[in-house]
Write a structure and sequence with these properties.
Elements: H1 3-11, H2 28-38, H3 43-54, H4 58-87, H5 91-133, H6 147-164, H7 168-201, H8 210-220, H9 235-244, H10 256-259, H11 272-297, H12 306-314, H13 316-344, H14 350-365, H15 369-372, H16 374-398, H17 408-411, H18 418-437, H19 446-466, H20 471-493, E1 497-500, H21 504-529, H22 534-565, E2 567-570
Antiparallel strand pairs: 1-2
Protein name: Purine-cytosine permease-like protein
GO molecular function: cytosine transmembrane transporter activity
Keywords: Membrane, Transmembrane, Transmembrane helix
Length: about 575
C-alpha cells in the first residue's frame, strides 16, 4: 500500500484513534495543573469527614496519607505513564488492538457509565453550593424536589460540557487557572477555622506547638473512635485508602488518555500536585474545616454538606470553591467518558460523543443520590477496571521481556480475545471473591487482583498465540507507524502556530493574579496568628471573608484575561 493511500486512510480516522502527534505533546506544567485541579475537588470535603467518621487518629492521618499518596504517585509514574508515552494511545484504543472489539466495547461501556456518574456527582456538588447561596431547600431524597435546583444543575452542567468538548487542551487550560486558587483556598480554610476549634477545645486561639496540635486533633477531629463509638481504622487502612482512591486511573490505566500527551515518562511525577497538595493537604484541611464549622454551627461534622463547611471557612469564596472544585473534576471525567464513547461509536467525533454523554450526565446530576453514593462507586469501579489494566500491563511490559509477541491478536487479525475476556472475568471473580470472604482489607484488594490477572492472562495468551513470531505483520505495523508520523507532520504544517504573548500588560495581569493569591494567604495568616481572643478572631475572620472574596473575583478575571492574551495564533 502506498504512503498516499495510507494518508487517505488516516484522514478518515478521528485524531483520538491515532497516536498523538509530536507537535501536540505538552510539558510537565500542563499535567501538574490538571492533576492539581482535578484532585482538589468538592469530594475532598466529604472524604475529610469520612476519615473522622472512620475513627482514624491524628498521627495515622498525617503519616498514612503521606505514604499512601506517595505510593499513588509512584503507581502513575511507573505503571501508567510509561505505557502511555510508549504508545501515544488512550487505553480504549490500545485495548481494542490487543483484546478485540467485543471486550473493548463492553469495557468502554463500563467506563462511559462510571465516568458519567462521577461527572454527574461533581455537577450535583457544585449545584448544591449554588443552592445554598440562593436558599433553595436541601435535596435529601434520591430525586430532585425543587425545580430551581434542576435549573441550577442544568446551568452548572452546561459549563462543564462546554469545556470538555474542546478536548485535552481546554481541560488543561481550565485546570491551570483553577489549580493555584484551589490550593490557596483549601489551605486558607484550615487557617481560618483552626482558631475556632482551638478556642473550643484548648481554650486558646492557637496551639502552642506540635504536641498541642496533635492533642487538638486527637480530641476534636481524628479521635481514633468511629461514628459507632468503637475503635477506628489504623495506619495500614489509611495508607490503603489513599493508595486505592485512584486505582481506576493508575493501576486501571485510564489515565493513559492524559499521559499520551506527555513529552516524557517521568511526567508521571506531576501527579504529586494532585496527591500531595490535593489529597494530602486538602483531606487534612477538610477535616480541620469540617470540625471548625461543626463547632460554629453546633452540629456533628458528619451532618454537614460541602456548602456548610465551605461557607464558614471561606465566606462567599466558599461557594466559589465548591463550584470550581466540582467543575474541575467533572470536566476531566467527562473528557474521559467522551473518549470511551468515541471508542464505541467510531464513526462519530469525540466532540459529538462528549456532547451526547454530557447531556445524559446533566440529567443524572439532577438526582442527588449520585453524590451520596460516590465513595462506594469509586471503590468498586477501581476493582472492576484493575484486571483490564493488568492485561494491558502484561501485553506491553511483560511480553517483550519473556519472548512473547506484543499485539499478537492484532497480527493474527482476530476480533475476539478469549485470553483477555477470560482473564478479566476470572480477575473479577478473584477480586470480589476475596472481598466476600473478607480475607484482607478492601483497600488492598486491587494488588492481588492485579497480580492474579497478569499471571492468568500471560498463561492464556501464550496458549492462544502470543508465543509465536509474526515478522511480516510486525514489519507492516512498523511501516504503518512511520506513515502515521509522516501524515501528522504533513498535517501539522498547515496548522496555525501558537506564539506566546510576552507583553508587559500580560505580565502585569499575571502579576496581579499572583498578588491577590498572596494577599489571601496573608489575610488567612492574620486570622490564624493575629487573633488573641475570641472577639478578635471573629473580627479577623469577617475581614478575611470580605476581602478574600474580592481577591477571588480579581484572580479569576486577571488569570483568564492573561490566558487569552497569552496566546497569539500566527496564521
Amino acid at each position: 500500500m502506498s504512503a498516499t493511500n495510507d494518508f487517505q486512510q488516516f484522514e478518515s480516522l478521528e485524531d483520538e484513534q491515532l497516536p498523538i502527534a509530536k507537535h501536540k505533546l505538552h510539558n510537565w506544567t500542563h499535567f501538574a495543573g490538571i492533576y492539581a485541579a482535578e484532585h482538589v475537588a468538592a469530594t475532598e470535603f466529604v472524604i475529610g469527614a469520612t476519615f473522622v467518621a472512620l475513627g482514624a487518629t491524628t498521627k495515622d492521618i498525617l503519616l498514612g496519607l503521606l505514604i499512601g499518596n506517595i505510593l499513588a504517585v509512584l503507581s502513575w509514574t511507573f505503571i501508567t505513564s510509561p505505557i502511555a508515552v510508549d504508545t501515544r494511545l488512550s487505553l480504549y484504543t490500545y485495548l481494542n488492538k490487543i483484546a478485540g472489539d467485543s471486550m473493548t466495547k463492553l469495557y468502554n461501556w463500563a467506563n462511559v457509565i462510571i465516568f458519567t456518574v462521577i461527572s454527574a456527582a461533581m455537577i450535583t456538588v457544585s449545584a448544591t453550593a449554588v443552592r445554598f447561596a440562593f436558599n433553595i431547600p436541601p435535596q435529601l431524597n434520591w430525586y430532585p424536589t425543587n425545580s430551581w435546583f434542576v435549573l441550577i444543575v442544568l446551568i452548572v452542567g452546561s459549563v462543564v460540557v462546554s469545556i470538555a468538548i474542546y478536548g485535552f487542551k481546554a481541560v488543561s487550560e481550565f485546570a491551570g487557572i483553577c489549580a493555584p486558587w484551589l490550593f490557596v483556598m483549601f489551605t486558607c480554610g484550615a487557617f481560618v477555622l483552626l482558631p475556632a476549634l482551638s478556642l473550643e477545645v484548648l481554650g486558646k486561639p492557637l496551639p502552642n506547638g506540635w504536641a498541642d496540635f496533635i492533642s487538638l486533633g486527637d480530641q476534636s477531629i481524628w479521635t481514633g473512635v468511629n461514628s459507632d463509638g468503637e475503635a477506628g481504622i489504623g495506619l495500614t487502612e489509611v495508607i490503603g485508602f489513599a493508595w486505592a482512591a485512584n486505582t481506576i486511573t493508575h493501576f486501571g490505566l485510564i489515565d493513559m488518555a492524559l499521559f499520551r500527551f506527555s513529552k516524557k515518562k517521568i511526567y508521571g511525577l506531576t501527579t504529586s500536585t494532585g496527591m500531595m497538595f490535593g489529597h494530602y493537604v486538602a483531606w487534612i484541611s477538610a477535616g480541620i474545616m469540617g470540625a471548625g464549622a461543626a463547632v460554629i454551627i453546633g452540629k456533628s461534622i458528619v451532618e454537614l454538606d460541602p456548602g456548610d463547611v465551605a461557607y464558614y471557612a471561606l465566606g462567599w469564596s466558599g461557594f466559589v470553591i465548591v463550584i470550581v472544585a466540582g467543575w474541575t473534576t467533572a470536566v476531566a471525567n467527562l473528557y474521559r467518558a467522551g473518549l470511551a464513547a468515541q471508542a464505541i461509536f467510531k464513526n462519530h467525533s469525540r466532540k459529538k460523543t462528549t456532547i451526547a454523554v454530557g447531556l445524559v450526565t446533566m440529567v443524572v446530576a439532577c438526582f442527588p443520590f449520585v453524590f451520596s453514593q460516590i465513595l462506594p462507586l469509586l471503590t468498586y469501579a477501581g476493582l472492576l477496571v484493575v484486571p483490564v489494566g493488568a492485561i494491558v500491563f502484561s501485553e506491553h511490559q511483560i511480553f517483550p521481556r519473556i519472548g512473547y509477541t506484543r499485539y499478537w491478536l492484532h497480527y493474527r487479525q482476530l476480533t475476539v480475545s478469549t485470553p483477555a475476556i477470560a482473564s478479566w472475568a476470572l480477575g473479577l471473580v478473584f477480586g470480589f471473591g476475596l472481598n466476600a470472604l473478607n480475607v484482607m482489607s478492601f483497600f488492598y484488594l486491587f494488588i492481588p487482583t492485579w497480580i492474579f490477572t497478569i499471571v492468568v492472562y500471560t498463561f492464556l495468551a501464550g496458549r492462544y498465540g502470543a508465543k509465536r513470531k509474526y515478522p511480516e505483520a510486525e514489519e507492516k505495523e512498523r511501516i504503518r507507524n512511520i506513515n502515521i508520523s509522516k501524515f501528522q507532520e504533513q498535517k501539522a504544517e498547515g496548522e496555525r502556530i501558537i506564539i506566546k504573548d510576552t507583553s508587559l500588560f500580560t505580565k502585569l495581569l499575571r502579576g496581579i493574579a499572583l498578588l491577590v493569591l498572596l494577599i489571601t494567604v496573608v489575610l488567612a495568616c492574620n486570622v490564624l496568628f493575629g487573633s488573641e481572643d475570641a472577639e478578635m478572631y471573629t473580627q479577623n475572620r469577617e475581614v478575611f471573608y470580605k476581602y478574600a472574596f474580592i481577591c477571588t473575583v480579581i484572580y479569576f478575571v486577571t488569570a483568564y484575561w492573561a490566558l487569552k492574551r497569552g496566546k497569539i495564533k500566527n496564521t
